[in-house]
C-alpha cells in the first residue's frame, strides 16, 4: 500500500529493521530513546505519568492515533507490577474519553499486540494503540488504489491533545 503522507518514514523504518533482531534493549528502543531525550514536543510525547506515558503515533491510521506505554522497557504485561498495569489501563480509559471530547469520533479501536507474530512492530516495548474511528473513515482508496490518504497535520493534532491531557493533572 502506498502512503501519500509519510516521506520522513524511510529513515526511521530503515533504522528500526526488526526483522534482523529478535529483541531490542532499552538502549536500542525508539520509545526509550525518546523518553530519555526530554524533547517531548519533537517526539510527540503528550503526557508523562508515574509509570506510563502517552505518545502520538508517528505513523497513524487516523488523526489522534495514540500509543500508551509503560516507562519501563517491557515486552509483556506480566513483566509489569500490578500498579504499573493498573495505571496503563486507567490512562487508556482516560485517553479514550479525551479523544472523544477532542475529536467527536464515532468509535474507538483499542489494541495491544504482544510479540512480533501478533503484529507488534516493536515487540520488546509493549504499547497499547488507541485509534479514533469515524463512520466512513475507510473508503475505496486503500482497497482499489492501495493508498491511504492522511489529511491532517500531526503537529496540530499533538497540540490539541497535549492541551486536552493537561486536564489530567
Describe the structure.
The chain is an alpha+beta fold. 35% of the residues lie in helices and 18% in strands. The protein contains 6 helices and 7 strands; from the N terminus they run βαααβββαββαβα. The strands form 2 sheets. Strands 2-3-4-6-5 form a 5-stranded antiparallel β-sheet. The chain has a two-stranded parallel ribbon with strand order 1-7. Strand 2 (45-48) and strand 3 (52-56) form a beta hairpin. It starts with a strand and ends with a helix. The model is unreliable at 17-22 (pLDDT under 50).
Oligomer: single chain
Give the low-confidence spans. Answer: 17-22
User: What is the number of beta strands?
Assistant: 7
The dominant shape is globular
CATH architecture label name: 2-Layer Sandwich
* CATH classification, class level: Alpha Beta
How much of the sequence lies in strands comes to: 15-25%
The helix tally amounts to: 6
Briefly note the CATH topology name: HIT family, subunit A
CATH superfamily: HIT-like
Largest pleated sheet:
5 strands, antiparallel
- What class, by secondary structure content? alpha+beta
Spatial gap, N to C terminus: 40 Å
**Integer-rounded radius of gyration:** 16 Å
In helices, the fraction of residues equals 25-40%
Mean pLDDT: 86
Helix/strand order: EHHHEEEHEEHEH
Q: Reading side by side through the largest sheet, how are the strands ordered?
A: 2-3-4-6-5
Give the count of structural domains: 1
Amino acid at each position: 500500500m502506498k502512503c501519500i503522507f509519510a516521506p520522513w518514514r524511510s529513515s526511521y523504518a530503515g533504522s528500526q529493521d526488526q526483522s534482523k533482531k529478535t529483541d531490542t534493549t532499552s538502549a536500542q528502543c525508539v520509545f526509550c530513546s525518546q523518553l530519555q531525550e526530554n524533547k517531548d514536543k519533537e517526539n510527540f510525547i503528550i503526557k508523562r505519568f508515574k509509570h506510563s506515558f502517552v505518545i502520538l503515533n508517528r505513523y497513524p491510521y487516523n488523526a489522534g492515533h495514540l500509543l500508551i506505554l509503560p516507562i519501563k522497557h517491557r515486552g509483556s504485561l506480566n513483566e509489569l507490577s500490578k500498579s504499573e498495569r493498573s495505571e496503563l489501563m486507567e490512562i487508556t480509559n482516560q485517553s479514550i474519553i479525551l479523544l472523544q471530547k477532542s475529536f467527536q469520533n464515532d468509535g474507538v479501536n483499542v489494541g495491544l499486540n504482544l510479540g512480533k507474530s501478533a503484529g507488534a512492530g516493536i515487540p520488546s516495548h509493549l504499547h497499547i494503540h488507541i485509534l479514533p474511528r469515524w463512520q466512513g473513515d475507510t473508503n475505496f482508496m486503500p482497497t482499489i488504489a492501495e493508498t491511504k490518504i492522511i489529511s491532517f497535520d500531526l503537529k496540530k493534532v499533538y497540540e490539541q491533545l497535549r492541551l486536552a491531557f493537561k486536564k489530567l493533572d
